[in-house]
Amino acid sequence: MADAPLNGFVVVDLSTGIPGAYCTKLLSDGGADVIKVEAPEGDPLRRWSASGAQIGPDEDGALFSFLAGGKQSVVADPQTDRTFVDDLLASADAVVWSPGSPLADHLAPVAMCDAHPHLIVAAITPFGLDGPWSDRAATEFTLQAWSGGIVGLGRGAPDRAPVYVGGRVGDYLSGSYASAAILASRMRVLAGGGGELIDLSMLESHVMGLTYYPVTYFDMLGKPWRDSRKLTVPGIARVKDGLVDVGCGTAQQWFDLCAMTGHEDWIDEDAPLTITEQANEKSAELYAWMAERTGDEVRDLATAFRIPNAPVATPDTIESLEHFAARGSFVDHPAGFRQPAHPYRITGVGLRPPSRAPRLGEHTDQHRQASRTPRKAGTAAERLPLKGIRVVDLTTFWAGPSATHLMALLGAEVIHVESARRPDGTRMIAGVPVTEDQWWEKQPIFAALNTSKKDITLDLRTERGRELLHRLIATADVVAENYTPRVLDQLGLDYAAVQRIKPDVVMCRMPGFGLDGPWRDNPAFAYVIEAAAGISWLTGYPDRNPYEPYSLGDPNAGLHALTAVLLALEHRRRTGEGALIEAAMVDAALNIAAEQIVEYSAYGAVLQRAGNRGPTASPQNLYRSNEIDEFGRDDSWVAIAVETDEQWQALRGAFGDPDWAADPELATAAGRRARADFIDEFIGAWCRERSGDEIVDALWAAGVPVAKVMQPHRQTELEQLTARGFFEVLDHPVNAPARFTTMPFRLSRGPRPVHAAPAPLLGQHNHELLAELGLSAEEVEALEAEGVIGSGYCS
After folding, report:
1. In a domain, 645, yes or no
2. Where is the composition biased (Basic and acidic residues) (predicted)?
């Protein structure tokens, strides 16, 4: 690992569960020395199998082995080894902490910061370290409910409860955010600054990853993004030989689908209905058309029409899919199972290959006997973590802009490149009529994804536009793009070309399916990425087709791309060399869905979707309350999840200890799981007589994880988010003030406020940036007259 970017970076892992484990896995893969400090009984993940596989006394579960590969294990007694742990922290660079283990509960994050001012302390908690909910019980399932992520994208059938996204995806999102935050903070430390506290809220991670800026949308347009559960049609549909996912993310894709299925007569460019509503009206005919064909026939046609599509991968079929086989997307783990390869590929940068997980306490003696040199805190003046980094941002829609947006919020100068004739796709969606003045400036998704950025318009179809882009790239540290590979190939802007312009540039390419393989040029929106990676397979009711999560694939890809960029920048700092990053959306998705392939290859188990029941809690479900929702429907729900026997006793107490709950068989998780329908009947009846607030008040006070299933545009009503300042109000030269999410972690050294400026107007910084490149005012005016640049949309 001599060429690894994090070689010599020491991280103490005091966490339990997936979020901290995935965070430190990403750091370990980058070359960090991760010392996992465990209480004598070990991390519970060592004994975990989602399929209930029996794990021998001298074995570790496959998921633990996947997450802990390449780490070291040290056992410390929380009562007697405080000095030992303190010595480890004194000589470490960072620590990852989460509550819930006997050891971690003796070490407060703020106290670790005070005792070791050099240390980056990342605390991962359900709601954050402060605020009125900071000590409340939660699970990944109840956090999905609080975030609005369960109902926010209309997932589920109108005649049933909505459904959550399976696979504990929120845990992985939280771990990814923590990893990126640590690497960003490290850049501040490397510039001479001191350590800091990273206070990460898993609830806020869920908001960012499972909803689509609903508060900004509501503030700017006065209506929720969706007000009911509607199928995404065709979405996931049954074909002759299985399931495929075919989706329409734009009006043009809907028109192409009509043509593909022989229904040009359905095309109505002036229709008052959204494309989702139009597709729902024609769903019966579309499903019948697909059912008459094989998956390959449907997908070949969709690909020819440039319509996003993918097979719906299952744990037992995913490795055999031609694209993954061609790209080597799965690799062997030393413990004997298969796992996804890294979520990104970085040329010339060594990433740790799959490695053996440590046995419990394997490295204890080594670290007790080691001589350590305490780190010293830097004293340089405060600065934003990415200050001094310039990013040329060629991204569009959600995945790419979400990566560059975080860079901008963390202090990078991000220059978003658009064209007056072909602006960023998010300027063109969301329902603002084109008859409105400056309608392209009024789209909430663009407004939310691009704060703190600059904007330049260059028509890259012209030689002059391409020449100016080359000159801009020559000033950049990072170039980011997320088109299909053929787009940059046509522009002559592959890595070799960019490297000739700026030899030490970090180029981050984010194609949906990667730079090679048979699906390389397929368009990729979040939903087909989720289907191809297996996330959709675990989402939905067991007796119906799966549902698309429809959100996760984009922000998850952006997060992993950001981590890769930070690793590549550290490589450049050490070596002076640039790098090409291939951060394929599907590779990032495969990694957060890893448990499925790990369980199948290790134990032969095909994990199944189970509605709102889940692998870690029983009972776990959604239950209807007695309220009518804001849309006049009997469609208000609460989420309840009991993960421990103690929480079960608390639930019984909150119910008044009824006779049905006293059955001894229900005292264990296994017994409760076997009689889940029986339990749900009683819980459902109890909830049906109460409001959501009454249910939450009764159960949360008793320590039971519970949540109201929130409409996502109501996120600002959550007092916890308000207390933490998660939303900031921004003014705008065209739009009225609106509320914007910040980041799901707070850095004790800032930024505060998080947003430096609202999203830029189209071409707002043309004159500033072109003058910086040496152009005179007259030359800039000539470019505008020629249409090479522009400050308004030109159809």
Report:
1. yes
2. 359-368
